[in-house]
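Morning!

This is the sequence you dropped in the shared folder:
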Amino acid sequence: MKSVWEGVFPAATTQFHPDQSLDLPATMAHLDRMIDAGIHGLIMLGTVGENCSLDYAEKMQVLRATVEHVAGRVPVMSGVAECTTALACKYAADARKIGLDGLMVLPAMVYKSDPRETLAHFRAVAGASDLPIMVYNNPVTYGVDITPEMFVELADEPKLVAIKESSENVRRITDLKNACGDRYILFCGVDDLVLESLLLGATGWVSGLVNAFPAENRLLWDLAHAGRWEEARELYRWYTPLLHLDTYPKLVQYIKLAQQECGLGSEMVRAPRLTLEGEERDRILKIIRQSIATRPKLG
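The structure's back. Tokens below.
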């Protein structure tokens, strides 16, 4: 299965009203801002989109609204983060009916599967629809590591076309290239490793901080893609304190607070997450506001 996925793909936030109910108009308005800034695709309902805090019907609402609103301007994908393989398969089939362009599939949630179980899960979800799949490898957060050797085993499944590599081990980009050649499209999934990953051969970036700084994200991508490494490094050094926020357990709260500070949305999250307060809020706001005050002039 061929895919032309490359570039900056936001892991888009899901916006909520003050009572934590879905705010679909605000979510769609934010997608427009990122599309206008030049992002290349969208991933709805990933970790940053609070997938596991929405019920199944709400997830389908978000996807239907997104497909209708985006109307083919960029590819639209969805995270698949369910507790059972059967429900992940149902999700994949329903996403296909809605008209999505692809899926970003995680291992089954809660239970930490062994390699045999992990491979079986991805094969089953791939068999549930004809959508191309990005395999999301994030052992740091989800406790399941999909190794380069496992991707060699999965290479005979044509619907598995891409890898979001979030192990926080940038060596994996080279290991995957050595083990699998160009079989998979490689995406960096950790914001503060993106320049290193692009240099080593990744051709895409699933980003969280793009929700707050879409123009800077696109510029960094463009500079790296053009091989303008000196300029890319300078921009990256400014951006890195913000990009570090993508690597903490409260990344959703941090990213949404940055989004609010930039006037691009609300920091409202859904429980069990709570908005930040006290010393932690002050500390994160200091990083965000310092970066806003020193942000580079674009154009």
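Headline: Residues 278-293 form the longest helix (16 residues).

More detail when I'm at my desk.
O.
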